[in-house]
Design brief:
Blueprint lengths: L5 H11 L2 H12 L2 E2 H5 L6 H13 L3 E6 L2 E6 L2 H37 L22
Helix pairs in contact: 1-4, 1-5, 2-4
Length: 136
C-alpha cells in the first residue's frame, strides 16, 4: 500500500486539476522534455509553462534537472500511485453498490417474469399466463 499524507494527495489532485498540466504529464510519460518543448503546444510563455511545471514538481509528479541553461523535465509517477490507490477505494465502493443494485434488479425482474409463486407471467401485466383448458 502506498502511504502518502492527506496534504500530499491534496497537492497531487490540485496539480491534476488543470488540463494543461495533465497533458504535460502525458507528454512526459512518453519521454523527458525541456520546458520549451513542454510549452510549445500551448499559447503560453516559458514563464507560464515553468509555473505549471513548478506545480507538478511541488506535487512530486515531475523532476527537473538543470543542465546549464536547459531545464530537463522527467515524469516521477510515484505520487500518481497514491492518487490511484485513493480512487481505487471508491471504485471498489461503487462497484460493490452497483453489483448489489444489479442483483436486486435481476431478482425483481425474475419475480415479475415468473410471478411470486413461480408461475410464468406476462411482463406487461404481471399476471399469470393462461394455459389451454384453464378457463374451465
Amino acid at each position: 500500500m502506498v502511504e502518502f499524507s492527506e496534504h500530499q494527495i491534496d497537492t497531487v489532485f490540485q496539480a491534476l486539476s488543470d488540463a494543461t498540466r495533465r497533458q504535460m504529464l502525458m507528454t512526459l510519460a512518453a519521454s523527458e522534455q525541456t520546458v520549451g518543448q513542454l510549452a510549445a503546444p500551448y499559447a503560453m510563455s516559458l514563464a507560464a509553462a515553468s509555473k505549471h511545471i513548478k506545480v507538478l514538481e511541488t506535487a512530486g509528479l515531475v523532476r527537473r534537472e538543470i543542465q546549464g541553461r536547459t531545464h530537463l523535465c522527467r515524469l516521477s509517477p510515484g505520487p500518481l500511485a497514491a492518487a490511484h490507490e485513493w480512487l481505487a477505494f471508491y471504485e471498489r465502493f461503487w462497484t460493490a453498490r452497483l453489483d448489489t443494485l444489479d442483483r436486486l434488479l435481476r431478482e425483481d425482474d425474475a419475480i415479475k417474469t415468473t410471478g411470486p409463486q413461480g408461475e410464468a407471467t406476462t411482463k406487461a401485466e404481471g399476471k399469470p399466463h393462461s394455459k389451454p383448458g384453464d378457463d374451465q
